[in-house]
């Protein structure tokens, strides 16, 4: 053996650092593209992104990396590695085996396309022009099918896509879980619709000053413990969070002048993602473990903060006064009216503005369409009609334009098929984590009622955030809650919450 | 020969495209660092920048690139190349021969340091803390001396640095040119100081609303033909322009609330740089020729727009009315008073706020200090005292803090030694170009007086901008003005202008 284990480890860690550096640089370029990059520079920028992504891909799939991995995986070497290095080896092996099946040139072409497609989507959404976007959608689907062929299909072709975002997740499991959710949530929704105690929402239909909305959003982010020395808040067509490194975790939001809480809850949502990324232990910085462990766990944090905390009664008992002062004379209602008005359950067209209950139906629609695209060959040309049919069927309403229909989300434009289920998985994880937190963090809701959110952030940091990718989703759920994932926590949480709001018997 | 000339050209052009892509990505990262990147993420970002710069450096110095160059330089091949490819080969050969002398690891360390040093400089300037910055200054000088050793000194060690920014420029030439300038400008400045017709500047000492300043700056940028679909205006501690590609050329400025024109002239200055980069011919996009041909020529454009146009009487005859309306009741003077008040010649501490005449003394101080550092071994610890001594000697005034002294400029923190002379070269080029323009563009000053600046932008595009690096500085000056560089144009321009303003006999 020409090269010792220690030298191999140094080479391996250097490579991981390089890969992580490319990831960070590309993260800045994507953030920039979506927050104000000049329009005419985008085509050339896409080519540059393609070059860098291609180089990153080469570094991630180089034969020497495979050799270093094999060397470090030898039992007597692996056992001497630190916990972090062991996990790095395992994770890198998984990514490596997946990536080497994609020819670098194909991947580079795909990245260029995905970047152009996202830009085009932004235009198409603004112009309500699905026809202009469709050729990009076709190409993105085509590339994704090529990738499935190269990776090899799981139990179904779509299983292969799911595993990218939630390791181990399958169509069989999701059919079961989503089936279970639907089974219990549909009667709950019916009870809610039948309740004579419908919340008043009339006070929400006003014009709310954008600057005041922004100031209040910043106030709440500070209350959550979002660190502004390690982040910034900008605007974009579709809100997102991006963790470049724990010292630079940026979020964006979108202000609607006729809605006082849309931007706020969007900001809290992205702020939840950001708290996760800002609080990863420093030992993981510069490695590929320095990010959330899965999309589902990531979504559990955004949706925990947005819904479990941000849409709770104690949260508004503390914060409503400040909100009223932000919009003098505009919110002349009681905190109970405000709380109930912001927790209305009603079918709606836009996923990111849906209530906590029907939200899961938005996800199920997307999940079913993705299954149809990849398991049944549904065409890009047929997406708008299918979308509208399903909204009619599941939610009883039909989009009046593609902008508020099939074009509403950025995900598909960038090829993120298999991502959407993460949102409902996040709801389930969040409810399960909250159950443990309520038992362990005594007086938790009293703290929320006093505006003291930092102990919650600290609990989450200690139990979840700091580990980054050091624990898998299932390890994490087991370690935090002492049980595997169980959708019943979400059902119970929603039942309790809406029984109170709608005074269900 | 295993590989034909055509295949070699394809490989060569692909490599140039890759190098250009890294340059663009790094440009975005630097822009981001200086316009609002979160503070705590900067150390890790510097490492990422180091990795990318190292990769770019490897691509630029790889043995195969040397082989491709040799192949393309063969006479019978070279003669078949397009003008652009010929120039690409020549330019790349020059950079290649220079770069291969720097060990990649050394260069990567240097880039990390330079990035950290620039961040540290920004803090140090804010805190007036030269001592905190000095260790970085020492290291940057140390690296630069290593580079001179590796490149080999020219006639003097400092010549080697000058050549980076203005190809072919030497200490001998600059001593002569700057000597000539000083010889004629010093008596002119004395005449000005002795004139009984000193402009009134009292109306400038007010508080001017920042938002109104910004709106007016944007108005002037539009008048100049700056394309906002290919750029954006932000704020930073030190104004700069960065050409990422011709479709994305960004500028920054810095608003001073007690000065109505500082940000405006800064914006016009950076706007001049930006017009150059926005109007390079599309055939050069994605190549390393897609930028200004030298720092001196670049500065000729920023200073042409800022001084020759922006500080001219016809410019204000058109624009003063709109400026008055931007600050109601604050500028109750005649356009002649305003014009003269903005063209006061007076010794001052801050280079970027100096008048057109004494500006050259600011440059000569920096030029002499750089010569002392690299030709005489002047130490970083001694820079503040030397700086203050020279300001006393040349301008008769002494900074009261390092923040307004040696810490005022970003250049040295990032290792840009040899850059400062470009500014005065720019003044000279600008005056010489303007002389030709006045003769060729009939009624030019009448157009300025009507706010019609686009014909000027178009003339500059046709004669200068579109060529990017396709012509060398001396080729360009010869082609545009039919003469080599002659500092007498600047002297004549300044004499004419100030004889009028100060009513000199």
pLDDT < 50 runs, ≥5 residues of chain A = none
Mean pLDDT of chain A: 94
| Structural class computed from helices and strand pairing of chain A | mainly alpha
- Give the DSSP E fraction of chain A (strand runs of 2 or more residues): under 5%
How helical, in percent, are the residues of chain A? 55-70%
Number of strands of chain A: 3
What does this structure look like?
Chain A is globular, with a radius of gyration of 23 Å. In chain A, a hairpin with a 2-residue loop joins strand 2 (241-245) and strand 3. In chain A, helix 9 packs parallel to helix 21 (488-501) and helix 15 (359-376) runs antiparallel to helix 16 (383-395). The first copy, chain A, starts with a helix and ends with a helix. Chain A is built from 21 helices and 3 strands. In chain A, 63% of the residues lie in helices and 3% in strands. With 505 residues, the first copy, chain A, is an all-alpha fold. The A-B interface holds A 17-18, 20-22, 24-25, 28-29, 32, 36-45, 47-52, 55, 227-232, 244-250, 285-286 and B 17-18, 20-22, 24-25, 28-29, 32, 36-45, 47-52, 55, 227-232, 244-250, 285-286.
């Amino acid at each position: 053996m020409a090269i010792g284990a220690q030298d191999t480890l140094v080479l391996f860690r250097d490579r991981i650092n390089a890969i992580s550096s490319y990831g960070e640089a590309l993260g800045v370029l994507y953030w920039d593209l979506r927050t104000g990059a000049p329009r005419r520079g985008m085509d050339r920028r896409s080519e540059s992104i393609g070059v860098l992504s291609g180089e990153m891909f080469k570094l991630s799939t180089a034969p020497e990396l495979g050799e270093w991995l094999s060397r470090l995986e030898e039992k007597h070497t692996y056992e001497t590695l630190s916990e972090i290095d062991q996990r790095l080896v395992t994770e890198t092996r998984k990514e490596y085996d997946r990536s080497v099946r994609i020819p670098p040139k194909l991947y580079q072409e795909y990245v260029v396309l995905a970047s152009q497609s996202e830009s085009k989507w932004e235009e198409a959404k603004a112009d309500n022009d699905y026809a202009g976007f469709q050729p990009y959608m076709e190409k993105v689907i085509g590339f994704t099918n090529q990738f499935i062929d190269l990776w090899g299909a799981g139990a179904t072709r779509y299983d292969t896509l799911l595993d990218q975002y939630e390791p181990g997740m399958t169509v069989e499991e999701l059919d079961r879980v989503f089936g279970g959710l639907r089974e219990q949530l549909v009667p709950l929704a019916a009870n809610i619709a039948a309740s004579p105690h419908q919340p008043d929402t009339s006070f929400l239909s006003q014009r709310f000053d954008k600057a005041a909305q922004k100031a209040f959003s910043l106030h709440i982010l500070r209350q959550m413990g979002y660190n502004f020395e390690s982040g910034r808040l900008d605007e974009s067509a579709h809100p997102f969070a991006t963790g470049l490194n724990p010292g630079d975790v940026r979020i964006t939001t979108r202000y609607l002048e006729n809605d006082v809480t849309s931007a706020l809850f969007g900001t809290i949502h992205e702020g939840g993602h950001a708290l996760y990324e800002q609080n990863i232990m420093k030992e993981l910085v510069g490695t590929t473990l320095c990010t959330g462990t899965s999309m589902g766990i990531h979504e559990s944090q955004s949706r925990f903060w947005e819904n479990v905390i941000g849409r709770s009664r104690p949260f508004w008992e503390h914060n409503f006064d400040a909100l009223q002062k932000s919009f003098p004379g505009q919110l002349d209602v009681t905190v109970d009216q405000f709380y109930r008005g912001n927790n209305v359950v009603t079918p709606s067209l836009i996923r990111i503005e849906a209530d906590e209950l029907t939200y899961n139906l938005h996800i199920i629609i997307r999940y079913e369409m993705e299954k149809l695209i990849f398991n049944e060959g549904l065409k890009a040309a047929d997406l708008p009609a299918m979308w509208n049919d399903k909204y009619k069927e599941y939610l009883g309403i039909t989009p009046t334009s593609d902008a508020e229909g099939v074009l509403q989300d950025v995900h598909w434009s960038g090829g993120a098929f298999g991502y959407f289920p993460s949102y409902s998985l996040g709801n389930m994880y969040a409810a399960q984590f909250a159950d443990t937190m309520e038992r362990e963090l005594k007086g938790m809701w009293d703290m929320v009622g006093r505006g003291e959110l930092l102990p919650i952030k600290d609990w989450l940091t200690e139990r979840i955030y700091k580990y980054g990718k050091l624990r898998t989703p299932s390890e994490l759920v087991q370690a935090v809650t002492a049980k595997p994932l169980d959708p019943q926590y979400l059902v119970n949480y929603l039942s309790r919450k809406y029984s109170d709001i709608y005074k269900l018997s």
